[in-house]
TrEMBL record:
Source organism, top-level taxon: Bacteria
The protein, known as: Uncharacterized protein
Residue stretches spanning the membrane: 94-111, 123-146, 166-185, 197-215, 221-240, 252-271, 291-309, 341-365, 385-408, 420-443, 450-470, 476-493
Alphabetized UniProt keyword annotations: Membrane, Transmembrane, Transmembrane helix
Length: 513
């Protein structure tokens, strides 16, 4: 029997075990299970080892791979449109959260004519705490809903997606309710705020928590649902604020409550539409609770830690208020405005960071599928060069943002209160953007544990450094915690990414692709 006939027989044996091969590693494992060693492969087939013949058989089983390295006629128009669509989709997911912040920044620079409508400092502090707490506690459930919903919708199982999202939403609201009750009890017991303020704050916290989680479900059902909702919320706030001549807080509560009602109706309608489009008979089964917790624990923890990290400096600065003021928590308005401007730059830079990470991972996956084992070092160098290029693009883009929003060397009027503090905050958020670039890459490689291991100790550093600086110097120096913590996060996550790039084929294989 000739070598060619032997090879055809081996291919038939392999395809009999698995008609549709997943990758060359699976092919190699099947060949070894059939009793072939590197020595036999070299003697009978003329290939260097089992991996070499496994790659050959895998390519024969997937003819499309044979043409990946050959030049193709490309429709550049369609390519550019597709890339623009991908960028706009990534950009819109984060930019929409900057719309309400921009609105508040503009509003804060208008001279108020109705000073009698200013809310009491204690109530303002309580609403600030409620807002931060809603983002932090719902952050984990938002991540869990997004991951589980994308998984089931991607498989074409909208019924399972609806049940999973509703279950996580119910669990999230139950958790928020328990935390609200515990906070009310503690506030009543310690007499931290007036009773009516505590009740208002708890209600506001629950409404916001529900709003964030419903927005997460809406983003799964409609690409433009979340942007339109937040734009509508901002427009409604301005209309109520000036047309109805209400105070800023009252207008904000009315706008959020009305938006929440329409949002809930829209989510119910869209879920019902998906359900009717894909009807199934029988009971819908989902994995048991322990399996769900195991699958979502890393994303849940990352969501909570992420929002804690962003607002750690404000929490520390708020608790470091002088006791002589009679308040237990208060954020100075100058510090609030300075950090809001820095946060605006962050929100505008995050979409670009996510898009660039998406481009890097897509290139990585494509090359890992076609690159040969002896070319892994070359692929590693190419990935490192692309990674450095992405960092350079982010640095340039962030610098342009700071120059246009704050104004260098002549600050804009709305940033003239404390431009130095704003620039320090921008430095902290720039380092955080670079850390998030690394985290997105790690998540796409199914290395969620590495992302958590990078951000959690950084959060501890953020709190400790911020607390020491705020209490030893002044509350506004809590921003140092953000800078140092973001630096630690960026360095730790960068090390994990570089380690993965040293063995790109192994990272690709470990990711399950």
């Amino acid at each position: 029997m000739s070598n060619e006939q032997k090879l055809l027989k081996l291919i038939a044996q392999v395809e009999q075990v698995s008609p549709r091969l997943v990758d060359r590693w699976q092919t190699m494992a099947i060949i070894e299970s059939l009793g072939y060693t590197d020595r036999i492969i070299a003697e009978e087939f003329g290939f260097a080892d089992v991996l070499a013949i496994g790659e050959y058989i895998y390519q024969q089983n997937n003819p499309v791979l044979l043409t990946l390295e050959t030049p193709q006629d490309t429709n550049w128009k369609k390519t550019i449109i597709a890339e623009l669509y991908a960028f706009v989709e990534q950009f819109s997911r984060s930019f929409v959260y900057a719309i309400p912040l921009i609105s508040l920044l503009i509003l804060s620079n208008l001279e108020p004519s109705d000073s009698w409508k200013f809310i009491p400092p204690q109530l303002a502090a309580l609403f600030t705490l409620a807002t931060l707490a809603s983002l932090i506690t719902s952050g984990g459930f938002v991540q869990a809903i997004a991951r589980r919903g994308e998984f089931y919708f991607g498989l074409g199982f909208p019924q399972q997606a609806r049940k999973a999202c509703v279950s996580l939403l119910s669990l999230g609201m139950l958790t928020s309710f328990v935390l609200a009750v515990m906070s009310l009890w503690f506030g009543f017991y310690r007499n931290l705020f007036p009773d009516q303020y505590l009740v208002l704050g708890a209600f506001y916290y629950l409404v916001l928590s529900l709003l964030w989680m419903l927005l997460s479900i809406l983003s799964l059902l409609s690409i433009w649902g979340t942007p339109l909702t937040l734009i509508g919320l901002t427009v409604l706030f301005w209309m109520v604020r000036f047309k109805a001549n209400l105070g800023a807080l009252e207008a904000q509560i009315v706008a959020i409550f009305v938006t929440l009602i329409f949002l809930a109706i829209a989510v119910v309608i869209l879920l019902r539409k998906r359900q009717l489009a894909h009807p199934i008979e029988g009971k819908i089964e989902l994995p048991n609770l322990s399996a769900t917790i195991y699958l979502l624990a890393s994303f849940f923890g990352y969501g909570i830690t992420y929002f804690c990290f962003i607002f750690a400096d404000r929490l520390v600065a708020g608790w470091a208020v002088d006791a002589a003021s009679g308040l237990i928590f208060a954020i100075d308005s100058a510090y609030q405005r300075a950090m809001d401007l820095a946060l605006l730059n962050f929100l505008l830079a995050v979409p670009l960071s996510e898009y660039l990470a998406y481009r890097l991972i897509r290139y990585w996956y494509k090359q890992a599928q076609i690159a040969k084992l002896e070319n892994m070092s070359t692929l590693s160098k190419q990935l490192n060069l692309r990674y450095l290029l992405l960092i350079g693009v982010i640095l340039l883009f962030f610098g342009l943002l700071v120059a246009s929003i704050i104004g260098i060397p002549t600050p804009k009027p709305w940033a003239s209160t404390n431009p130095v503090l704003t620039l320090i905050g921008c430095l902290g958020y720039l380092l955080l953007v670079l850390g998030l670039l690394n985290a997105v890459v790690l998540f796409n490689l199914n290395l969620a544990s590495s992302a958590i291991a990078s951000i959690f100790p950084s959060l501890i550093v953020n709190f400790v450094i911020g607390y020491l600086a705020a209490n030893a110097i002044a509350p506004e120096w809590a921003v140092l915690g953000l800078v140092v913590g973001s630096l630690v996060f960026m360095l730790l996550s960068r090390r994990k990414v570089l380690q993965a790039m040293q063995k790109p084929d192994y990272a690709y294989y470990l990711g399950g692709y």
